[in-house]
Design brief:
Helices cover 36% and strands 20% of the residues. It is of the alpha/beta class and 458 residues long. The chain has three domains: 193 residues, Rossmann fold; 205 residues, Dihydrodipicolinate Reductase, domain 2 (2-Layer Sandwich); 33 residues, no CATH class. Strands 14-15-13-12-11-7-10-9-8-16 form a ten-stranded mixed β-sheet. Strands 3-2-1-4-5-6 form a six-stranded parallel β-sheet, with helices on both faces. A hairpin with a 2-residue loop joins strand 11 and strand 12. Helix 1 runs antiparallel to helix 2. The chain binds nicotinamide-adenine-dinucleotide.
Length: 458
């Protein structure tokens, strides 16, 4: 593409940005005008950060039509080369390769970028890319700080560009059907009084990551890109390299397990409840990985006000034990309980044994499939009068026949083309993520934090 065409296309996209400014959720209507007039139907895609999650997203999007993989950026030479080669092998053209994101955004004419850098880089990269006229898909957690996340929403508003946050469950048909139809329309749970969620990981899956030293960036690069954040002038090269590879373990670079794993699921509590919680209490410890900055295990309780009465959500992230059923969220009501997960294996619905309402019509319509009738546990220690009638177990519909991140990327692409509304735009993502930033402080100080606007505002 000539310099002149590139400039015209950029000017055109920037004009679209001005027109969209201030129309946050209405942006797709504006964008449809932009998309209709687009010089090319293909979206020119840039990747920022080419580590593990970049590979997951690329695998999930490689079958989506109309994408031209134009440029990649990473400060690690072999990841940059690996990503570029994968794109070339699959699509024929070698993308532009950049160590520096600003340079990529300056030189390339991109419509959308996907950001999969460590959490402390999300806000600067998102703001730069939005300002450069790109629509952005940025991985969760939005940022390592609440201020960073707020700056992303402000940039989204200022530029009128789209910002999708990578809480992929929001576009997952199983989650959408369960919320819209089973919980909200059919009221299958009755009154939801409690929620429970967990991500349990074994010690073996929680170890420090190690990468061959010879392929890691040099000291100058690591300092230039802020891997000494909060510890300026105090770190050896080996400390810097450890922080680069294991950024999740450091307080100045990430929010630790509660934001890395918990964010996925606490987002579901807030999305399903349709509101922010009113308080959080938490407890955590460095019980096994004793020298880590972040807690290795955290348990917390959020309290909610709902139109039907109070509700509370218990969440635990464990990095020392995998037993106890993996990762799921459960919504426990007076008539039924939905246990939902990205993994079908952890997904079920239970009908309360004493519930008056029959679920047979839902079974007859093929919506639910009964897998087990409730049976009281036998044994000589059973005392019937102590126990509730056992619940029946059903299978939850809505399995996915594609990678779990694909529907979320498809939603983003459709929104950029003016054909859909984002399922997890920056503003809604931050409304839901804001309470998560307060879990570590609550656990650190063993206190209950009662939220005010100052804690949660976007
Ligand atoms: N949605 C999900 O299911 C999910 C799953 C895993 C990870 N994630 C998120 O994806 C993001 C990346 O995680 P990951 O596991 O791929 O991490 P990673 O460490 O494997 O990859 C990060 C990459 O970013 C590069 N990088 C670092 N700083 C950079 C900079 N300033 N400019 C350019 N490149 C830079 C690194 O060299 C590395 O290749 C995180 O925010 C994480 O929370 C989301």
């Amino acid at each position: 593409m000539s310099e002149e065409t590139k400039t015209n296309r950029r000017d055109f996209l920037r004009k679209g940005s001005v027109a969209g400014a201030g129309l946050v959720l209405g942006a797709p209507a504006i964008l449809s005008a932009e998309a209709k007039n687009a010089p090319s139907d293909e979206l020119r895609v840039g990747f920022i950060g080419c580590g593990k999650q970049h590979e997951v997203l690329f695998d999930a999007m490689k079958n989506i039509p109309g994408m031209r993989y134009t440029a990649v950026a990473d400060i690690m030479k072999n990841r940059l080369g690996g990503s570029a080669s994968r794109i070339k092998n699959m699509f024929g053209d070698m993308p532009g390769r950049y160590f520096d994101v600003e340079e990529m955004l300056e030189k390339e004419d991109l419509d959308v970028v996907f950001i999969t850098t460590p959490d402390f880089w999300h806000a600067p990269h998102t703001v730069m890319a939005l300002e450069a006229g790109c629509h952005v898909y940025c991985e969760k957690m939005m940022s390592d700080t609440l201020e960073g996340a707020r700056s992303m929403v402000a940039a989204m508003d200022r530029t009128g560009k789209l910002l999708q946050i990578g809480h992929q469950r929001r576009s997952n048909p199983r989650y959408q059907f369960t919320l819209d139809y089973l919980i909200n329309q059919e009221k299958i749970c009755g009154q939801i009084v409690n929620m429970n969620g967990q991500w349990n990981r074994a010690v073996g899956s929680s170890q420090d990551i190690s990468v061959k030293e010879s392929i890691l960036p040099d000291e100058k690069t690591l300092l230039k890109y802020g891997f000494d954040k909060g510890q300026e002038g105090k770190l050896s090269l080996s400390d810097l390299r450890h922080r680069f590879v294991n950024w999740r373990l450091y307080k100045d670079l990430s929010g630790g397990p509660i934001s890395d794993l918990g964010a996925h699921q606490i987002d579901i509590f807030n999305w399903f409840m349709g509101t922010q919680p009113k308080s959080v209490m938490a407890s955590g410890g460095r019980n096994h990985f004793k020298s880590r900055e972040h807690f290795d295990n955290v348990m917390c309780v959020f309290e909610y006000d709902t139109p039907e009465g109070g509700a509370r959500a218990f969440y635990q992230v464990l990095t020392t034990t995998s037993a106890g059923g993996g990762y799921y969220e459960s919504f426990m009501g007076t008539e039924g309980t939905v246990e939902i997960s990205e993994r079908a294996a952890y997904t079920n619905i239970y009908r309360e044994g004493g519930c008056d309402r029959s679920w047979d019509p839902l079974v007859q319509r093929g919506i639910l499939k009964k897998v087990a009738s409730g049976q009281a546990a036998g044994g000589s220690d059973a005392i019937a009068s102590y126990e509730s009638a056992p619940p029946d177990q059903f299978e939850l519909p809505g399995g996915l026949s594609k990678p779990p991140h694909q529907p979320h990327i498809e939603n983003f692409v459709a929104a950029v083309r003016g054909q859909a509304k984002l399922t997890c735009d920056g503003r809604h993502a931050l409304e839901s993520e804001a309470p998560i930033y307060w879990v570590n402080p609550a656990a650190e100080n063993s206190e209950t934090i009662h939220f005010t606007d100052e804690h949660l505002h976007v």
